[in-house]
């Protein structure tokens, strides 16, 4: 395809627009970008114009600098871990200059509408300050999702004499110095606004109707997003798609722990109530380092939602409380993810009467009916780096329009759109939190844009032939890309014949991971999953040996105990079950006096020896008791951090002991019993001794007191005798072993209270 004759218009010169210009230019398209602001950078370029959405000068990125760069243009090393608006706008403008994008941008040019030419061959862009439209073959809309503000409907607002604005018009806290301000909203903007105002305003009320999970950027001196590797986030997307309830449960637990770790106990008056849906919904999360401290210090007051305006300076809340002397209300109530510039071009569907209309966009990018000439990079919202997601989407659009990748048939795209709309409608109706327009199922979407762009990432970092080959050839780099820093540079590593690869990607991935390691601090020395050094402690070693031998002894007679009761005492299966269950209950009941004894004596060595001797006596008399509590020895001998592993090792050893003893018991039963039974059975049944041994039903079928029944009873008695002797033999060595244990004073062991993790 000769792309040099195709003219493409890009609307918007923010991160999405800049990457769209570059991707299209790399495929040979003729590109012109229209930006209504005087500079590139989108909302990161501060503007005093109240009609332009922009961050304030003090805004910092929620993600660390390691996750923010474009895929082939590194962030300067000198940037702080979380760059502010000034850093980022300089970076975006430097990117535009470096790749020669600035000369392709028409600044201060606002696109008012787009129409189709009469001959239906091109698109006409109508600019606000130009009479004649400009003609293009294709259009990329990259004007951002924060364009059209949503203003709340408040009863009595017309009588309010104070200042009422949307957060789009909020530019600096100094404008509200000495004032009483109500900030409406629950999201990131509301949190930032309330915190900024607290340094200037006389009183700041944070008015919201629901809670949120508030995360800091840093946790225990380390950046919060350090855990979010490529492999972990993709696995999370997969679980969210296939097991949404499991995904919600996992992330609710994980994020709730993060919140507790960061802030401790939250005051209920702050209204940051917990809801499992917060952990999996963008609108349920707030990233703010200072909001909770400001609430705790009283610099920001959390209140119920605004119900109505009662007077010129009086505001009534949902809980009946009235705020007087209110000077300003700032509505941080979000934006419509508007495709207004495409009115009349994009169709909408309403799958449910209670749901809002949803645009007919394939993969949230291509309008049905115009997939070959219009792409929207400003609509999709995913729980990932927005700049990275839109850059990969821009690559995908360029490769599709260049003919290197192909969209599915129209019918398949229509089917996808209807399924997505049904999914999003169900999400809106079932989720208690409001949903952002443009939310999409991330697992399928990322796979689609990566496949269309030709990044090769999913193929090389997954369980594929290419993935295994890459791991064998470059194991360290493969591990870095999958489990290290989730840097966008991974999308430029592989040459696939589609989007342009970057020769410096590999080195930059290594460099970013090195910087990340420095930032996270020295790596602790590797610790074995099983701390074998615990076996240097003689008490631990003896406890494990003792536990293993106890189970060897126990299973010698326990496995056949049920059949023993049925045959020797002519008991039914139900009565046999009662006896064994009573035994279990009574033996567990011994834990209470044994525990009291340990607490009273404050020791475990000699008590353990006494219990072992009692156990030997009981075994000899065929009265079964449990073995001494070896777990006490483990817990008394290891550091608190190793208790779980120590008990796991003990369970492993006892399980091995049980397995060994089951083998011994089975060998005794299968090798000795047939010959003994043949010896005692009447002559005419001796040939069937082996069959009778293996069939309990047949054994019980012989009348009680008959010669056959007596032979079976006598054989069982002989087998129990052999098994008991074997069991006693297994208990001989533990007497010496237990003498080697250290006699710990239990009260002097280090105790740790609270959460283990």
Could you please describe the fold and organization of this structure?
It is a single chain. It is elongated and about 115 Å long. The strands form 9 sheets. Strands 3-2-1-7-26 form a 5-stranded parallel sheet, with helices on one face. A 5-stranded parallel sheet has the order 9-20-10-11-16, with helices on one face. Mean pLDDT is 83; it is low at 622-638, 640-647 and 751-757. Strand 4 and strand 5 form a beta hairpin. The chain has 757 residues and is α/β, with parallel strands linked by helices. It folds into 3 domains: 3-145 and 337-453, FAD/NAD(P)-binding domain, CATH 3.50.50; 151-333, FAD/NAD(P)-binding domain, CATH 3.50.50.60; 532-748, Up-down Bundle (Growth Hormone, Chain: A). Belongs to the FMO family. InterPro entries: FAD/NAD-bd_sf, Flavin_mOase, Flavin_mOase-like, FMO-like, MFS_trans_sf.
Write the layout of secondary structure elements.
Elements: E1 7-11, H1 15-26, E2 30-35, H2 85-98, E3 105-107, E4 111-116, E5 123-127, E6 134-136, E7 138-141, E8 148-149, E9 163-166, E10 180-184, H3 188-197, E11 203-207, E12 213-215, E13 218-219, E14 222-223, H4 230-242, H5 244-263, E15 285-287, H6 291-297, E16 301-303, E17 306-311, E18 314-317, E19 322-323, E20 328-331, E21 335-336, E22 348-349, E23 358-359, E24 361-362, E25 366-367, E26 374-376, H7 386-401, H8 410-430, H9 442-453, H10 457-460, H11 465-473, H12 475-483, H13 505-520, H14 538-558, H15 561-569, H16 573-589, H17 591-601, H18 605-620, H19 630-637, H20 643-680, H21 689-693, H22 696-701, H23 707-730, H24 732-739
Parallel strand pairs: 1-2, 1-7, 2-3, 7-26, 9-20, 10-11, 10-20, 11-16, 12-15
Antiparallel strand pairs: 4-5, 5-6, 8-21, 13-14, 17-18, 18-19, 22-23, 24-25
Helix pairs in contact: 1-7, 4-5, 7-9, 11-12, 14-19, 14-20, 14-23, 14-24, 15-16, 18-24, 19-20, 20-23
